[in-house]
């Protein structure tokens, strides 16, 4: 723990010693003009990173100056979340709530912040009053997702730090957090993936522990299955199934994960490297400070395991083959999940964490990405997931489009009803040679997606990665095509995907993936 804490503190000192990042308020209007979020958000989070570093390791004058600048921002919410019919200054979104919590806890941590009364007034006027004094639920109290836990949890933490009456907090925060917990089934799986589990359940945990300290009430008790989710969705140390809008290698807050191990006995996921503050692109105060307080190094190894989460519709199996750890992950669920992709029956094959057949995860967040054109965007579309078309039709969005996973003695079966009148059955089975796949449905055109270009060799396709090689036997060479698309990932980095597409004959042979 001392090494983890020492490394983080040294990193924070280095950040605090740098000049305060530039901040151009006019970039807030870029989203409305272009639909792009990153130009404003990059500088916004750079400012939050510097604020955290100064609060923990910096001098009072520099900290007070930056706190004053934050309090003069037009809005603490991101422009993408501003509405047309209310003042951005009182927009209560994820980051407004996180900013309120950060500033409130800084006031409690540092008695040398100048203008503390005005800072507290800003916290109340921008976030806590609009939340606690609203006669009607805010939208995120009704549409349950990670927003529910983050906004309610962060606002609740701010209120605790400012000394609010616990009955006031109980009446508004606890019902929202209880609704968030109800979004999980008995298997504890998170439809939004590990990235958003870390975000949502993380803020639930941070608030729950502060609430337990303040009142003695334990909100964490009974949530062992939810706490176990990341380890069950793991492909390799530091690597996870990337279904929906998630990352393959999310930042793993050591404080959160070791706390859940200590409190609920949850096996923490394995990490491939120590956590740094720089890796959190949103520079979140809560995970940083709880890691400094609670954190210990995470495990470095993960072994073979087989997990089916039937309610959320996720299957993950890891197998040791020789010196390599191979993983198969398959997606069920429904096509109106939070951060939904058209991905029912999609699957990943990875070796030592490298996805040879991939799920691309999150694309760059823009206005179109969360608008009516969502499924025309590359990452959420059916065309760039490893799912076939049925009678020429792609998967359809909507709650009625569903896939059920059934784990039987001969392998995993996936029943997909998402193609209108057509249907698809997929059967996966491990064999001595690798993984067998059989697809049943009318007029199927197979699609297999990767960030690696496949090489076609007759009835074989070969994906050669850095850590292993995948060979698909059973390709229909008569109409097999390989195409690609250039896009951008969640961080705006250039991202190229490759797809192998071919039609299956009326009596298809079994497709077989050889693992080398």
TrEMBL record:
Positions of the Heparinase II/III-like C-terminal domain: 304-393
Major subcellular location class: other
Classification via Pfam families: Hepar_II_III_C
Subcellular location: Cell envelope
Protein name listed in UniProt: Heparinase II/III family protein
């Amino acid at each position: 723990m001392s090494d983890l804490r020492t490394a983080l503190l040294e990193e924070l000192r280095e950040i605090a010693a740098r000049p305060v990042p530039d901040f151009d308020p006019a970039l807030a209007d870029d989203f409305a003009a272009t639909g792009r979020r990153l130009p404003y958000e990059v500088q916004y989070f750079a400012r939050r990173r510097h604020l955290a570093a100064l609060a923990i390791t910096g001098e009072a004058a520099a900290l007070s100056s930056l706190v004053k600048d934050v309090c003069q921002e037009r809005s603490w919410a991101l422009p993408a979340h501003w509405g047309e019919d209310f003042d951005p200054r009182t927009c209560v979104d994820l980051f407004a709530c996180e900013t309120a919590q950060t500033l409130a806890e800084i006031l409690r941590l540092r008695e040398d912040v100048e203008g503390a009364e005005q800072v507290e007034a800003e916290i109340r006027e921008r976030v806590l009053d609009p939340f606690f004094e609203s006669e009607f639920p805010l939208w995120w109290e009704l549409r349950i997702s990670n927003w529910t836990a983050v906004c309610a949890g962060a606002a609740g933490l701010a209120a605790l730090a400012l000394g609010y009456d616990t009955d006031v907090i109980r009446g508004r925060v606890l019902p929202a957090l209880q609704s968030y917990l109800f979004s999980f089934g008995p298997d504890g799986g998170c439809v939004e993936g590990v990235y958003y589990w870390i975000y949502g359940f993380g803020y639930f945990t941070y608030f729950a522990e502060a609430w337990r300290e303040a009142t003695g009430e334990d909100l964490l008790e009974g949530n062992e299955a939810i706490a176990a989710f990341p380890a069950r969705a793991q492909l390799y140390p530091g690597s996870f199934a990337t279904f929906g809008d998630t990352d393959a290698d999310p930042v793993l807050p050591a404080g959160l994960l070791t706390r859940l191990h200590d409190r609920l006995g949850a096996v923490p996921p394995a990490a491939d490297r120590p956590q740094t503050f720089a890796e959190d692109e949103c520079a979140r105060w809560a995970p940083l400070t709880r890691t400094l307080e609670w954190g210990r190094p995470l495990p470095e190894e993960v072994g073979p395991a087989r997990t089916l989460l039937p309610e959320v519709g996720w299957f993950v199996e890891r197998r040791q083959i020789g010196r390599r750890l191979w993983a198969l992950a398959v997606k069920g669920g429904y096509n109106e999940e939070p951060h939904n992709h058209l991905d029912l029956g999609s699957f990943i094959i990875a070796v030592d964490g490298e996805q040879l057949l991939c799920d691309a995860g999150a694309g760059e967040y823009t206005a179109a990405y969360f608008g009516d054109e969502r499924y025309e965007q590359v990452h959420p579309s059916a065309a760039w997931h490893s799912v076939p078309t049925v009678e020429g039709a792609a998967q359809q969005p909507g709650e009625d489009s569903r896939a059920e996973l059934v784990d039987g003695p001969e392998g995993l079966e996936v029943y997909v009803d998402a193609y209108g009148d057509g249907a698809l059955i997929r059967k996966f089975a491990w064999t001595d040679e690798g993984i067998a796949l059989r697809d049943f449905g009318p007029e199927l055109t197979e699609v297999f997606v990767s960030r690696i270009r496949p090489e076609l060799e007759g009835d074989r396709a070969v994906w050669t990665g850095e850590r292993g090689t995948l060979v698909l036997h059973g390709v229909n060479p008569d109409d097999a095509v390989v195409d690609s698309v250039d896009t951008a990932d969640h961080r705006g980095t250039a991202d190229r995907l490759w797809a192998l597409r071919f039609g299956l004959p009326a009596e298809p042979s079994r497709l077989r993936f050889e693992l080398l």
